[in-house]
Design goal:
Helices cover 40% and strands 20% of the residues. By secondary structure, it is an alpha+beta fold.
Length: 488
C-alpha cells in the first residue's frame, strides 16, 4: 500500500543513562550490569527501603545541563523532582523519582539531515532527570511455570529523558534524529552510546494523518527500542499498520506497544497511560534546585566542540570533502584520531582523511572493531601517508602495509623494509625492465602499433608484475609510451 496519501508524524523520547560514578540519589557505584554480579551495588536508598533519604547527585545535574545547552534548550532557574507512581516488579519503591512540572531544560532544537540531504529542524520539548529502574530477567520453566529475577544494580542510575516535538515525518528522519542525539551525548562524554548495554534506549510515538492535514492522528508509543535497526523497522511497520487500519475504516487505538524483532511486528503491551495515571506529586524528601546564571555559564564554558561545529571546521580549515568530514565527526573518537594523524603529518589533511575514512574504516568494519581498539597509532597512519606521498611506496603497497599494521600494530617503515616494498623510481633500472617486457611480447607490441592502444595498461601490468608492484607508475608509463612510439 502506498503512503502517498498519508503523512507520518513521529515524536521521540530518548532515555540516556548519565555517565557518573555514583547513582542519582545515593552513593552506590554505577556498574556495568551486563558483567557485574547481580545485586552487588545496592543500598537502602536505591533498594527502596522505608526511611531511606535520597540526595541529589550534583554531577548528574551538571551533565543534564550540558545536554540541555548542547540541544539549544533553556536551562530553568527553578527545577524540582516529583514522584511518578506506578507498580512494577523492577521499581522497588513503588514510584520513580522523576521531574514533571519543573524539568531542568525546555524549548530547544537540533537540526538533522536525512539521506536525501534535506535539513529537518526537530524541536526539543524538554529534558528531565530521573532514576532508572531495576532490571528484570524472565525465565521460562517446564509446564509454563516461569519465574522472574530482579537485579537492582541498575536501580537508581541517573537517567536523562529527552522528549522531542512531533516534527519527524519518516523513519529516516527519526533515525537521523536519534543518531544526532547519540553523537552529541558521546561528544559531551555523558553517555557511551552503547545500545547493546542498554545505556541508550529509544521510544517512538507514531501517528498518521492525511497529507496536508494539520490535525494529529491517534498515536501509539513503541517502547524500549535498543538499536537503530529496531527504531527504523518498528517505525516503518507501525506507519504501514496504522495506514492500513485507517484505510479499512478502523480506528487507531492509543496504546503502548512493544517491538518483536524476530517477527518484525509491533505488539500490544498496555493501554496508553496519561499523566494523571501516574498521580505525580512533589517529592517531599528533595528540595527544589535553584540554578543561577553563574552555574549555567560555568557549565556552558565546559562544553566541548560539538559535531556541527567540528564538521564546519573540518571543511573550512582542512578543506575536506563534505562526505569525509561528515563521516569523521559522526564518532568523536574517530575525529580525534584523524586530527592526531594530521598533526603527525604536519598537514596534508585531505590525504590523511582518505586513508582514515577509506582503507582504515574498511578494515575496522570488516573486523567489527571500534577506533578505540585499533592497533594502528595515528602517528603510524601519518607515516604511511608520508611514504606514499613521497613516492617511497606505491598505492597497492601502502594498502598491503596498512593491512599488516592493522594486524600487528607495527610501524610502516619497518614493514616496508622487511617486505622490500620500496618503490623503484630509478629511470635506468626501470628502462631495462620495460625493454625486457617489450622484447618478450612482440605480438602485443605489433597490435599496439596497429591501433590497440588499450594494451598500454596491459604492458603496465607486465612491468608491475616483473617488479612485484614496486615500479613507480608514472615513470613506467612515460617509458612505455616513449619506447613504443620509437618503434613506429
Amino acid at each position: 500500500m502506498t503512503n502517498d496519501r498519508y503523512e507520518a508524524v513521529i515524536g521521540m523520547e530518548i532515555h540516556a543513562e548519565l555517565r557518573t560514578a555514583s547513582k542519582m540519589f545515593c552513593a552506590c557505584p554505577v556498574v556495568d550490569t551486563t558483567v557485574a554480579e547481580p545485586n552487588t551495588a545496592v543500598c537502602p536508598v536505591c533498594g527502596g527501603l522505608p526511611g531511606a533519604m535520597p540526595v541529589v547527585n550534583k554531577l548528574a545535574v551538571e551533565q543534564a545541563m550540558m545536554v540541555g545547552l548542547a540541544l539549544n534548550c533553556q536551562i530553568n532557574a527553578f527545577t524540582s523532582f516529583a514522584r511518578k507512581n506506578y507498580f512494577y516488579p523492577d521499581l522497588p519503591k513503588g514510584y520513580q523519582i522523576s521531574q514533571y512540572d519543573d524539568p531542568i531544560a525546555t524549548n530547544g532544537w537540533i537540526e538533522v539531515q536525512t539521506d536525501d540531504g534535506e535539513p529537518v529542524r526537530v524541536g526539543i520539548r524538554r529534558a528531565h532527570m530521573e532514576e532508572d529502574t531495576a532490571k528484570s530477567f524472565h525465565h521460562a520453566a517446564p509446564g509454563g511455570r516461569g519465574y522472574t529475577l530482579i537485579d537492582f544494580n541498575r536501580s537508581g542510575v541517573p537517567l536523562l529523558e529527552i522528549v522531542s516535538e512531533p516534527d519527524m515525518h519518516s523513519a529516516a528522519a527519526a533515525l537521523a534524529y536519534a543518531t544526532k542525539i547519540r553523537e552529541i551525548l558521546r561528544y559531551l562524554g555523558v553517555n557511551s552510546g552503547d545500545m547493546e548495554r542498554g545505556v541508550l534506549r529509544f521510544e517512538a510515538n507514531v501517528s498518521v494523518r492525511r497529507r496536508g492535514s494539520q490535525t494529529l492522528g491517534t498515536r501509539t508509543e513503541i517502547k524500549n527500542l535498543n538499536s537503530f535497526r529496531a527504531l527504523v523497522r518498528a517505525s516503518e511497520y507501525e506507519i504501514a499498520r496504522q495506514i492500513e487500519v485507517v484505510e479499512s475504516g478502523g480506528v487507531v487505538v492509543q496504546e503502548t506497544l512493544g517491538w518483536d524483532e524476530a517477527r518484525g511486528v509491533t505488539v500490544t503491551q498496555r493501554s496508553k497511560e496519561h499523566a494523571h495515571d501516574y498521580r505525580y506529586f512533589p517529592e517531599p524528601d528533595l528540595p527544589p534546585l535553584a540554578i543561577d546564571d553563574t552555574w549555567i555559564e560555568e557549565v556552558r564554558q565546559s562544553l566541548p566542540e560539538l559535531p556541527d561545529a567540528k564538521y564546519r571546521r573540518f571543511v573550512a580549515a582542512y578543506g575536506l570533502p563534505e562526505n569525509d568530514a561528515r563521516i569523521l565527526v559522526e564518532d568523536v573518537a574517530l575525529a580525534d584520531y584523524f586530527e592526531a594523524a594530521v598533526r603527525g603529518y604536519g598537514g596534508k589533511a585531505v590525504s590523511v582523511s582518505k586513508w582514515v575514512v577509506g582503507e582504515l574504516a574498511y578494515l575496522m568494519n570488516r573486523d567489527g572493531i571500534a577506533i578505540e581498539r585499533v592497533r594502528v597509532a595515528p602517528e603510524s597512519i601519518a607515516s604511511l601517508v608520508k611514504l606514499l606521498d613521497a613516492g617511497t611506496i606505491s598505492q597497492s603497497s601502502a594498502k598491503d602495509v596498512l593491512g599488516t599494521m592493522f594486524e600487528s600494530g607495527r610501524a610502516p617503515e619497518a614493514i616496508v623494509k622487511e617486505k622490500g616494498l620500496v618503490q623503484i623510481s630509478d629511470q635506468d633500472q626501470l628502462a631495462q625492465v620495460v625493454d625486457q617486457v617489450l622484447a618478450d611480447h612482440p605480438e602485443e607490441v605489433t597490435a599496439y602499433l596497429e591501433g590497440r592502444e588499450s594494451l598500454l595498461q596491459w604492458f603496465m601490468g607486465q612491468v608491475m608484475r616483473a617488479t612485484r608492484g614496486r615500479a613507480q607508475p608514472q615513470t613506467v608509463l612515460g617509458l612505455l609510451r616513449a619506447k613504443l612510439e620509437a618503434r613506429r
